[in-house]
Amino acid sequence: EKGGYDYFMLKEIAEQPRAVADTLLGRIGTDGRLTLDEMRISDQALREIDKIIIVACGTSYHAGMIAKYAIEHWAGLPCEVELASEFRYRDPILTRSTLVIAISQSGETMDALMAVRHAREQHARVLGICNVNGSTLPRECDGVLYTHAGPEIAVASTKAFLTQLVAVYLIALYLAQVRGTKWGDEVFAMVQLLSGMPDKVEKVLETMGPVRELARSLADEHCVLFLGRHVGYPVAMEGALKLKELAYMHAEGFAAGELKHGPIALIEDGLPVVVVVPPRARAVLHDKIVSNIQEIRARGARTIVIAEEGDTSVQPYADTLIEVPAVPTLLQPLVTTVPLQVFACELATAKGHDVDQPRNLAKSVTVE
Ligand code: M6R
């Protein structure tokens, strides 16, 4: 059932182009307009929303962090993201016009379920993003948008994460459509680009040989840092989480702008630092991160740079350059996350670990 792969994780990484395509299927009309009928929350209700709060755990939380950028930009709504395990222990301000979005692959994560119950008690509307039909979370939400990743067996979430990204992009663009905010050229163009993403993910997968080789060469390291800005920041956190859970290595994802506020003190000779570079089209963001790369390299870091193809400006400062197809900034996590999954999987395998069953972890965390 592993389809010829040694691990489910490898199979699930390879399935990502299909998973992304399936999650888009039937949701984009020929006129480029979106239909999310099965969501069960009316357009009228969506027009009345004045704030969004996203709750999730682990990898799903990283999808939530990316959602915030997309929702604020396309839908023009304020959006907060909160770890589900923290949400009900503070006093979140929720009203009938707050939309809470709970993201959970399994639909059985207790922290997420408790957050959903808390939100409903406060009369907020709750939308679930879930991969498992018939699981608990969708039953407890007002509406649900299913991801179509198919069963995810490996403990480390890969294809479910990419489909969660697709789901949050669809929601953000749908909100723009029904609310009339920014609905026009940009949103229309985004929908078209979104339908081209399965091919881009496929292209990334075809070029993973050097990433595997790099990962094997780092199997004896003790620590890897990950840096990103904007949506590259949650991607950096996701890369670090994968490495922690699979390779049992100390790994941390930082917002590159925070470097000088502390983490730069960690940089020493030979320390591997993975940097996720935004597209050149976002010149200000892009140039800032290029100077971050120069700063850490000057202090001895071994720089592993993920950048869009043809980005020659990063070449002089990259010890290893991993190129991904050029896509708009907000969609970039769909292509920049993949090398980080492959990196962690290969590094952990080189260390002799079972990547499908990492120690101390369970696929669904059904206790608080
Ligand atoms: O099923 P969920 O999406 O609610 O799971 C949330 C986390 O437990 C999960 O993403 C976890 O962090 C993964 N093992 C990460 O790879």
From TrEMBL:
The keyword Cytoplasm applies. Its EC number is 2.6.1.16. The active site is at K363. It is found in: Cytoplasm. One of its GO terms (cellular component) is cytosol. Residues 42-181, 214-358 form the SIS domain. It comes from the Bacteria. Its main location: cytoplasm. Keywords: Aminotransferase, Cytoplasm, Glutamine amidotransferase, Repeat, Transferase. GO terms for biological process: carbohydrate metabolic process; fructose 6-phosphate metabolic process; protein N-linked glycosylation; UDP-N-acetylglucosamine metabolic process. It catalyses: D-fructose 6-phosphate + L-glutamine = D-glucosamine 6-phosphate + L-glutamate. The keyword Cytoplasm applies. GO terms for molecular function: carbohydrate derivative binding; glutamine-fructose-6-phosphate transaminase (isomerizing) activity. Homodimer. Catalyzes the first step in hexosamine metabolism, converting fructose-6P into glucosamine-6P using glutamine as a nitrogen source. This is Glutamine--fructose-6-phosphate aminotransferase [isomerizing]. It comes from Actinomadura craniellae. The chain holds residues 247 to 614 of 614 of the full protein.
